[in-house]
Amino acid sequence: MKIKTSVIIRLLIALVLVTIIFIDTIIIRQLNKKIENITILTYDSDSLVAFTPKSNNKPMIVVTPDFIDKYTKYQSPFNDDLTFNELMEKYIRNRWADQYGTPRSNKEYRRIHEGIDLYVPENTPVYPLADYGIVTEVSDNPHYLIQVECTNPEGEIDSVKVEYGKIVRILYPEGIESVYAHLSEVFVELGQEVNRNTKVGLTGRTGNIRNSGKPSHLHMELRYDDNKSFDPRYRLRFKGSSIKHFLEFLKIGEN
Ligand SMILES: [Zn+2]
């Protein structure tokens, strides 16, 4: 009987050891998988932003595939579940629709239409394009002016103030900003954090649209961190914008 008991005890110990080794193997495998999915970048890198491990003195940015999916897939500003591509296809063929680049010149200057016009009924709620953003400019003034680039009669690059009306400008993690103009109402404040479900305003007819004879629409612009606008049709997915602009707002490393 004595021998049998010791054998059983040894078998039990062996079983426990095998179980521990087995569990360890699984845990190590899962950790390896997680590590494979993480990319650590620095400030100077030309890529996307995610988290900031605060224990690290040097600012680091961790980008996961999940983050890229969540924060850089742009959707329609109308919360109608359209992807950005679908939105463009739906609204771009419209008899009123001034596309990006349409001339907006007069005797004093030459400039272009720096956004696209999305025709929806007046007072349609508008939302951010991505699931995270920061309000970087907002105005409740129906005659609000924005300084835009133009060419003067001498052919030099100049700037002119244009009446955008009530606006909301949102900065996204990728480092680009959207500008919504001609709104009838704005519901957000400067510096406010917003997500896909934040109703930031309502479409309207404020600003220079009043005298144009055009119906209510959302004038939407996309701008790089140097404030240069670009055609939204050509920028539907991340292609390597600068993240510096966004990081400045996050104030990484201050705490
Ligand atoms: Zn417009």
Question: In words, what does this structure look like?
Answer:
The protein has 255 residues and is α+β, with helices and mostly antiparallel strands. The protein folds into two domains: 2-36; 75-250, Glucose Permease (Domain IIA). The chain is 23% helix and 24% strand. Strands 3, 4, 5, 8, 9, 10, 11, 12 and 13 form a nine-stranded antiparallel beta sheet that branches. A two-stranded antiparallel ribbon has the order 1-2. Strands 6-7 form a two-stranded antiparallel ribbon. β8 and β9 form a beta hairpin. The longest helix has 35 residues, at 2-36. The protein is elongated, with a radius of gyration of 26 Å. The chain starts with a helix and ends in a 5-residue tail after the last helix. 28% of the residues are buried. The model is unreliable at 39-59, 237-242 and 251-255 (pLDDT under 50). The structure holds zinc ion (ZN). The site of zinc ion has 5 residues, from loops.
Task: List key phrases describing it.
alpha+beta; Glucose Permease (Domain IIA); 9-stranded antiparallel β-sheet; 13 strands; 23% helix; elongated; binds zinc ion
The helix count comes to 4
Helical coverage, percent range? 10-25%
CATH superfamily of the largest domain: Glucose Permease (Domain IIA)
Q: Which percent band covers the strand fraction?
A: 15-25%
Return the CATH topology of the largest domain. Answer: Glucose Permease (Domain IIA)
Average pLDDT taken over every residue:
79
Outline the low-pLDDT stretches: 39-59, 237-242, 251-255
Class of the largest domain in CATH?
A: Mainly Beta
Coarse shape? elongated
Number of domains: 2
Enumerate the distinct ligands. zinc ion
Number of strands: 13
Label the structural class.
alpha+beta
